[in-house]
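thread from #wetlab-drylab

HS: before we spend reagent money on co-crystallization trials with flavin-adenine dinucleotide, can we at least see a predicted complex? here's what I'd submit
DV: go for it
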Amino acid sequence: MYFEYRFILVSGTGSLMNRKDSDFVGSLRRVVGDAFVLEDRERVSDYLKERRGRFTSDTMAVVLPGSTDEVSQLIKLCRERRVPMVPQGGNTGVCGGAVSTERSIIVNLQRMNRIRKVDRLGYTLEAEAGCILSNLQMAAQDKGLYLPLSLGAEGSCQIGGNLSTNAGGVNVLRYGNARDLVLGVEVVLPSGEVWNGLNALRKNNTGYDLKNVFIGAEGTLGIITAAVLKLFPQPVHRSTVLIAVTSIDSAVELFSRTRKETSDFASSFELMSRICVEAAFRNIPGCRDFFDQPYPWYVLMELGDSTSDGISKQLNERFLEHAFEDGLIEDAVLASSDKQASDMWRLREAIVEAQLYEGKSIKNDVSVPLGAIKPFIERTVAALEARVPGARSFVYGHIGDGNIHFNLSQPRDMDGDEFFSRWHEMTDIVHEITDELDGSFSAEHGIGLLKTREMLRYKSAVELGLLRSFKAALDPDNIMNPGKVIPPAE
Ligand SMILES: Cc1cc2nc3c(=O)[nH]c(=O)nc-3n(C[C@H](O)[C@H](O)[C@H](O)COP(=O)(O)OP(=O)(O)OC[C@H]3O[C@@H](n4cnc5c(N)ncnc54)[C@H](O)[C@@H]3O)c2cc1C
């Protein structure tokens, strides 16, 4: 089922452009150059793809600015003509945040891909927003440093998109979300003014923390054009272990102990249910079972350190020994080579793709406090499977962050479209239980177009009022990614 992206305008304002305006497109061309304004359907099609096929996207033109000044000029033009604009990075987001309409332009930052500075002494990196995440990781690594932001889409997502969605990923446990990795940003505001907040200071207590207004704003408050990121010592030793446990309780208890016994060295602590790994074995070549019998739950844990003698492995071994003695672990395989470690990660990362082969799935990305993980999973599985008998709950996620990807696959004997038509009914069940347990209905993927309904439902009137005030103050003409994140007033 497709969701119409209905265009939402703040009352009292209206787009002056109801159809393609060649004068306007001509002025865009004068700013960035002919080669960087795309109108041809074939050339724009990649920018209109929506990963999960839930929204249709269209555009007047895709514009590729090459500098902050060009972004500023584009915004001024759009503001003058009340043309909505959709900032776009690698277009890998999964909530429809970069979806556009035929009356909007897409501003994709791919040409702004310069790494301005890697500071070895200060452990910082300054880069333009269009840099691909994996290129930044490599630039840090070349200097013996480490950029811990890491996620499945890292080969195509851009750092501007990562900051705008406050992306999480596999290392949040130790290093935090994208937000925690930023020291400064440069943003072009909906007025066209440039805010240069590119400082590299760890301490800067001079009033409101403005950068955090733009991080996670999903392009609704301005276009991020550059950022200064924190770097860390490159972990040269890693110790990866796949652990089999019989209950969620054991997994949660293990996590709590890991923190203490390994001095918070764990960078990842991932939970996978048996149904998830079975789907990977079935559908993804190269995925194999590491144990000689099935277990209901698995934990993939990784420690890393940059010391000369590599203490991760010793810490991991000692931790596993104690956990075995206390009966928390059924079995465990400690990776003995990089290849074995990457095979374990392959299993974890294959789950997303494996589920595609299991028919349609209704995806949820929620977080709950650690102590609520067990009741959350048990209550949600029971409620969903009672509502749609035969539906299969794929439960996995970054359990160390309380983040659970709760994906429901269609019953084998049900029509996929019929199952999909029950999206809201199913996600409402998940979100109600999440809310009752003081959790969040969007742990890491954001809001985009997909979850504005939940914003209305679960955010207080005070919070919605604050969000609308920020938006109205910065973007009174509602030209900056309108309709995303903030629900229209009822
Ligand atoms: C395989 C896969 C794995 C993923 N894994 C994770 C994960 O582990 N954790 C996680 O948090 N997310 C994950 N994601 C989703 C994640 O949010 C995005 O992949 C990424 O952060 C978005 O970056 P992007 O450059 O593709 O942004 P886009 O998809 O292009 O845009 C996302 C949003 O940011 C806005 N935006 C983009 N660039 C700018 C800018 N320069 N200034 C202002 N606004 C901008 C857009 O308007 C849109 O609202 C995954 C996605 C995929 C496909």
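DV: The chain has a mean pLDDT of 93.
HS: ok that's useful, forwarding to the group
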